[in-house]
Specification:
alpha/beta, globular, binds magnesium ion, binds 3-methylbut-3-enyl trihydrogen diphosphate, 246 residues, single chain, Undecaprenyl pyrophosphate synthetase
Length: 246
């Protein structure tokens, strides 16, 4: 039986989130420039998006660039932005062919104008697709998102739109950049790092975490299947006892 066939189609995670890490080290390990790693990382994105769509996963969030990544050397940041613009432009027809709808979360004002333009076209062009919902976290960080949410709640309280005494978890959820999506059930991080790096801190409250040493440029569908099978072997208790679950 292939790995793919061992996946229980009835128990797929609805939402998978991925910290795509290890591009730079992968490249440097073979004496190449870090940008070479990012370029190859795009191949993995293609493969994983296709794999998730084929399986029938509802939501896939990919952490592509954090607000902290702006502090990298200028050369790497510009290289990544060029790659971003180029990739979006090239991938829209494939997204449409596979009925995939693109979403973006993050502080998009920080992006160069051509990247914003390219993104906004891609969002419109894939806007009516109903298959996999592909969420790119770009110039994203959880603390940025939470700060934004709190500010907007304060503004709406002041304007009399919401009663401050009624602000609760549901209110906060509605003000997050991810308000339209369910929380991720499975979070994958590649490259052997065991941290969250400011990614979906609130939304990952009950996600199953999966870490692999595989560097992102080498991550393929088979690796995704392994992560899903691992996920399906876990007992998710949400605070209850094991007996209550079975
Ligand atoms: C992930 O790979 C991609 C981005 C953060 C943009 P890295 O560039 O972080 O690669 P490493 O972790 O330095 O190897
Ligand atoms: C997290 O990776 C951000 C993305 C994958 C986009 P980093 O490489 O920036 O994280 P740290 O710095 O190792 O925590
Ligand atoms: Mg990294």
């Amino acid at each position: 039986m292939s790995l793919k066939e061992s996946i229980n189609q009835q128990a797929l995670p609805k939402h998978i989130a991925v910290i795509m890490d290890g591009n730079g080290r992968w490249a440097q390990e073979q004496g190449e420039d870090r940008l070479f790693g990012h370029l190859h990382g795009v191949e993995s994105v293609r493969d994983i998006v296709e794999g998730a769509a084929e399986l029938g996963i509802g939501f896939l969030t990919l952490y592509a660039f954090s607000t902290e990544n702006w502090d990298r050397p200028q050369y790497e940041v510009s290289g990544l932005m060029e790659l971003l613009v180029d990739t979006i432009r090239k991938e829209v027809p494939t997204l449409n062919k596979n009925n995939i709808k693109l979403h973006v979360i993050g502080d998009l004002n920080m992006l160069p104008a051509n990247a914003r333009q390219e993104l906004s076209e891609a969002l419109t062009e894939t806007g009516s697709n109903t298959g996999l919902q592909l969420i790119m976290a770009l110039s994203y960080s959880s603390r940025w998102e939470l700060g934004n949410a709190v500010r907007n709640i304060a503004i709406d309280v002041k304007a009399g739109k919401i009663d401050p005494l009624k602000v609760d978890q549901d209110t906060l959820q509605q003000y997050l950049a991810t308000s339209a999506f369910p929380d991720p059930e499975l979070m994958i991080r590649t490259s052997g790092e065991y941290r969250i790096s400011n990614f979906l801190l609130y939304q990952l409250a009950y996600a199953e975490l999966y870490f692999t040493n595989t560097r992102w440029p080498e991550f393929r569908k088979e690796n995704l299947y392994e992560a899903i099978i691992d996920f399906q072997g876990r007992q998710r208790r949400f605070g209850k006892t094991g007996d209550q679950i079975t």
